[in-house]
Design goal:
The structure is a homodimer. Chain A is α/β, with parallel strands linked by helices and about 300 residues long. Chain A has twelve helices and eleven strands. In chain A, the strands form three sheets. In chain A, strands 3, 4, 5, 6, 9, 10 and 11 form a seven-stranded mixed sheet that branches. The interface between A and B is large, with 45 and 45 residues. Chains A, B: Keywords: DNA-binding, Transcription, Transcription regulation. Chains A, B: This is LysR family transcriptional regulator. Chains A, B: It comes from Microvirga vignae.
Chain lengths: ~300, ~300
């Protein structure tokens, strides 16, 4: 078998980004860490760590790191069956989640579990499943509805988005109505290249592809703040803007035309026993914040 | 000279991530876009675009993209001196900014300018200057205090951070005081591998390197939400937590020991004339939100 004390050193370097911090975490000297990584690299005949600020993994290094993390997870479920539990640090769950879920309900799910540490990867709901497919996370909040190989898939409901802008912004750009002509000139917010929500909604509402001028803002809260500040309109999760809408600080461009994005919790079956509490918490909190999925969407 | 209609097609593909959206933006067909990129690649003898969802740049493609964007910026400052202004889209400014500045004051600066579009790259304040050094942005909010080659550097003041947690969290983990022993066991929040703020503050307060169990949360607002939910303690920007502190929803672990992070606005000199309004707005909004930098920090 592989040398797991060497692999633990590798995991600690990649988790913390430095040999010094890895040494602190494992209560050894940095030179001991350095030697273990070197031995591992010599034995496998391949570079595993790109030395830098921070240290990052090569492709093989990343693969080994995933393996160590998975073994640690399996070990933690083993502990529950042992008469004497060896002392161990809480297990870290690496999970891919979309930014808007993190901004609205996912923290509550994390907080209602105990004894886990979370390492969150943020990615678009249309792309978070790829992390799971690549084996880089043990679970994902995703728009991908069919189970990924080796995973269980739970429906969570839909996150409702409202196209929102400030009243001043609407007076300036949509004074003559929300027409194609106006939309093509009015600055619009976009999270990043992966964000299709504004384009999808415009297609749904106006039945056409438009390409408005864009502000690129990769943060859920910044999206709301930018709408409040009158920089542009954007698709904001209802839970983040409901108070602003009620107070009139934001208005819905088309109040009766929200965009519902169905979300799913997919989790690796091999660590199901460890993830049980987390899955329960995720399903519970999602049901409180998300809306039921419409099976027959309006045409 | 290079063919700028071909280069515009390249820029549109890389900005929007797809040939279809680039075509919409330039009012041509996707096959026209495809042909321009192909001609450019054939002429230069190198692949420029990695076709995918989204399309991304090769190294040479990225370099050309930066060049086109810079030419567009220079052109926009030329327009001010022309008797007849050619019709053109608003200019997009690509700027690197740290997440906590975006969450606290940067949106206000953006909103107090007019006629610009913003394309924000989020990175740690200790790393945002690298974007500028690589020529991938025209300006950066950074902790880097010496002017980067070809750039002007303005001091902005310091963003004040407070080590914060919920009262329930403190009762559970720090009931016997904020000792090394307690800190080594109490879950701590960290933004990502680049985030040194918690480690720096622990070093300042306890005079020692500690490695607490970590939750990894790459979002400014999630950091505050996680502190409120009792998941861990973390260094939060004072403007984001001041109301929670006053209302008792959060407490400062050491009220008299904040961590001040001096920030600077560095901007490429070649586009100074275009960036004038933005620089003024940035300096103005920063002065309202940041604290004066202490020249002789307490030992």
């Amino acid at each position: 078998m592989l040398d797991y004390s060497h692999l633990s050193a590798l995991a600690a370097v990649l988790r913390t980004g430095s040999f010094e911090r890895a040494a602190q975490q494992l209560h050894v000297t940095p030179s001991a860490i350095s030697q273990r990584i070197k031995l591992l690299e010599e034995r496998l005949g391949v570079v595993l760590v790109i030395r830098g600020q921070p240290c990052t993994a090569t492709e093989v290094g990343q693969r080994l790191y995933q393996h160590v993390e998975q073994v640690a997870l399996l070990e933690s479920s083993l502990h529950q069956n042992l008469p004497v539990r060896p002392e161990s640090r809480p297990v870290t769950l690496r999970i891919a989640v979309n930014a808007d879920s993190l901004a609205t309900w996912f923290i509550a799910a994390m907080a209602s579990t105990d004894g886990y540490l979370f390492d969150l990867m943020l990615d678009d709901q249309d792309h978070s499943a790829e992390w799971l497919r690549r084996g880089e996370v043990v679970a994902a909040v995703t728009a991908h509805s069919t189970p990924i190989q080796g995973c269980d898939c739970h429906s969570l409901g839909a996150l409702r988005y409202i196209a929102t802008a400030s009243p001043q912004y609407c007076a300036r750009w949509f004074a003559d109505g929300f027409s194609e002509h106006a939309v093509a000139r009015a600055p619009c917010l976009i999270f990043n290249q992966k964000d299709q929500l504004q384009a999808e909604w415009l297609q749904q509402v106006l039945g056409t592809n438009l390409y408005p001028p864009l502000h690129w803002l990769p943060s859920s809260q910044a999206f709301v703040d930018a709408a409040l500040a009158g920089l542009g309109w954007g698709m904001n999760p209802e839970p983040l803007v409901i108070d602003h809408l009620r107070a009139g600080r934001l208005v819905a461009l088309k109040p009766d035309q929200p965009l519902d994005v169905p979300l799913f919790w997919q989790q690796s079956r091999i660590v199901s026993s460890v993830l049980g509490d987390v899955t329960r918490a995720v399903l519970h909190e999602a049901s409180a914040m998300l809306v039921p999925v419409q099976l027959a969407p309006k045409q």
